[in-house]
Amino acid sequence: MLRNICRYQRQFGQVIWPFSFPQGQHVPSLSTHLQKAKYASATTERKKFYENVSISQGEGGLFEINLDKRKLKTPGGKLFTVPNEAIAIAVATEWDVQKDTLKFYTMHLTTLCNTALDNPTQRTKERMISAALKFLETDTICYRVEEPPGLVELQGNEWDPVMNWIEQRYNVVIGSSSSIMGPQIPEETKETFQQHLNSYNLWSLTGLEYVITQLKSLVLSFGLIDRHLSVEQAVVLSRLEEEYQIQRWGNVEWAHDYDMYEFTAVKRKILQD
């Protein structure tokens, strides 16, 4: 499928910028405003302009993606480089499986890598950790309904074991609440998770932030990282109420299944790479 993917090449021609903004106009210093504009103007589809995809190892041991003999660049104009071969192969595969039309909205790892490289909103590590910790206050498995009885029982049976696990694993107190405001999270708990998140680099935090946002749960995301939960289990637990409603009222033909498969596939790719 991926032609010459592991054949490292040292010499390549011009770089390639696969988005809708001006081609060949490298701006060495972009303001935050301009970077945001370029990200916003990226097309969701474009006619395919290359035949072969390969990876190469460049300066500092970083891996690059090559479309024919041209090097891929980010929307911000940087050389597209990733820290390990596994991510490089996964990203290159996203480009290789594209047909006549490039569908950028299907290239999730490419998008995440662009975000990590360009950091278009100029977010610091501290801001990313702070945003992740805010999910504790409205974490999916911290909020419990009071009715109907069937859903109340389901939440207790499925979510309580995960809550017990994370509280024991990290020696913290989280709790749950039926209040729309969520549980009151002790400061000691926040400090423990902050220290843990601080051990990750920006690349890891970028991927983790996507997982947390999609699951709407810091607890389930930590369960995935620690291999306490499989990707399938985490997705089902994050969609517990929706799955309950489906079982009770029926499935929307094809739509719910598509969402589930897409949701699961993206999480698996991020966590594996």
UniProtKB/TrEMBL annotation:
Record bears the keyword Mitochondrion: yes
GO biological process terms, semicolon-separated: mitochondrial proton-transporting ATP synthase complex assembly
GO cellular component, as recorded: mitochondrial inner membrane
Membrane topology: Peripheral membrane protein
Entry keyword annotation includes Transit peptide: yes
Pfam families (UniProt xref): ATP12
Subcellular location: Mitochondrion inner membrane
SUPFAM superfamilies: ATP12-like (SSF160909)
Protein role: Plays a role in the assembly of the F1 component of the mitochondrial ATP synthase (ATPase).
Assembly and binders: Interacts with ATP5F1B; involved in the assembly of the F1 component of the mitochondrial ATP synthase (ATPase). Interacts with FMC1.
Family: Belongs to the ATP12 family.
Name of the molecule in the record: ATP synthase mitochondrial F1 complex assembly factor 2
Originating species: Sinocyclocheilus anshuiensis
Chain's gene name: LOC107699854
